[in-house]
Structure formats: C-alpha cells, structure tokens
Amino acid sequence: MFNLFNKKPIPYIILLILVIFLIEFIFLDSKHIVWTLICGGVSLIAWNYYYRQEYRILFWLGILGVGINLLETIFFRVLLAIPVIWFVIYYFQKIREDKSEPTLLQFSEEVLEESEVLFSNQWFGKQEIGNQPYRWQDINIQKLFGETVIDLRQTVLPKGEPVILLRNLAGKIKIIVPYDVELSIHHSVLIGSVDIFGYGDDQVVNRVIHYQTENYQKAPQRVKVYTTILAGKIEVSRG
Asked: For residues 156 and 137, what is the distance between their CA atoms, to the nearest angstrom?
C-alpha cells in the first residue's frame, strides 16, 4: 500500500517552506519578515550582554517582537499547519492499516523489566535534581526553556562510567560535581557561554567542546556528561 511516510518527504517539505518564504519575501508584503529579522538581530546582540538588566529586558522584547511578527507571516502559518496535516494523514492511514491488516503479536523469551524513572522531561521552568538525597540513575532528559540543575553530591555514583545526557533549547545548565569525582564533558552549543571549573568562554558560537579532568581515565569515581543547548549557558563547578 502507498505510504507517505515511507517516501521520506522531509527534504520536499523543507524545500516547500523555503519556496513559500522566498515568495512572500520577494513578491508579497515582506515587512513582517524584515521586522522579524530586525528583532532577531536585536535579541542576538542583547544576548552578548545578558548579564546586564537592561539588555535582559531588550533580549526578551526582541523575542516577543519575533513571535508577534512571525504570527503575521504566511510562512509561519504554513510551518504550523504542516505538522497538523501530517498527523491527520498519519491518523487516517493508521486506521486504514488497522482495518485491512491483521495484528500479529510476537513474543520472545527475553524478559524485560520496566524501572521507575526518577527524572522526566520538562518543557519550561527550573528543574533541580539533587535538592535531596536520591538513588542514582543515568540521566537522559530534555527541556525547551529554563534552567536545569543537577547536584551529584546527593547521590552515590556506581562503579564504571555513569552517564548524564541533557538537551536544552534555551536556558542554563548547571552541574555540581563532588571533589572526589572526575568528569568528562562533551558540550555542543549554537550560541552561549561555557564555564567548566573556571575554564571556558563568555561568547561561544557554534562549537563542540570537550573537557576532561586529568585523572579521569584511572579514577574509581567518574561521570561522563553530554550536553546540547541551542542558546544559553553551561556551568560546572565543584561542591
């Protein structure tokens, strides 16, 4: 049966979005797109001085301006409509497949146990792990906007190489590492700042950074951290 989702239409959708953007920008009323770019530029400049109160206000005013102007563009409306259309097609296609094809259940001898997950994804706000003692689990969470704080002083790390995987769209990641624990961290950032044990840069643009403490390879207590952030700051400190 023909299946839209087996044809991998992502490149064609991206091309369609770009074509709509160019048509609106060149032939239609492009003032909202121009103002979107201006507000985005203002936010980008203000981000470099985000530590100052007036620039923080300017940054969020720029973000608000980007949002308001995007809502007025045909380009953004089409961008919002595509996932809805995609879901509707997928839903009706799934119903048709369920009616026409019998469901086959396949069992194996492999036994799986589902464990309770202590840390979950959060869209907005501050998420703090370690404000009270907790049993260690490898951490794999993601967030849209806000601050994520992980305090490793409130848990006992297992032997081996426990892993922390964090993905933020925008905001701050803060990790507190005990003095007797060695660290390896891979950090990918589009724009932001890095402060890892006092090392780093306040203006990092589109970089992948790897830091590792001197005794990491032979340490009995160590942790490996992978972080990804589109715009924001990562701070790693001892405690």
From this structure: 10
Q: Retrieve residue 142's tokens.
A: 């993601």
Q: Per residue in 31-69, pLDDT tens?
A: 776 777 788 888 888 887 877 888 888 888 888 887 777
First-residue to last-residue Cα distance in the chain: 59
Report the alpha-carbon distance of residue 165 to residue 119 in Å, rounded.
Answer: 12
5 DSSP 8-state letter: G
Q: Do 141 and 116 touch, CB atoms closer than 8 A?
A: no
Integer Cα distance of 192 and 47 in angstroms: 8
Phi, psi dihedral angles at 102 (to 5 degrees): -70, 150
- Cα(211)–Cα(227) distance, integer angstroms: 12
Residue corresponding to tokens 């890892």: 196
Measure the CA–CA gap between 78 and 85, rounded to whole angstroms. 10
Residues 6+ apart with CB under 8 A from 17: 75, 78, 79, 82
**pTM for the model:** 0.54
Nearest alpha carbon to residue 227 among 174, 188, 171, 192: 188
| pLDDT single digits (tens) 85-118 | 777 776 776 666 555 554 555 556 666 666 777 7
Q: What is the reported pLDDT for 27?
A: 63
Mean pLDDT of the chain, nearest integer: 79
Residue partners of 227: CB distance under 8 A and separation at least 6? 164, 165, 166, 167, 168, 173, 185, 186, 187, 188, 234
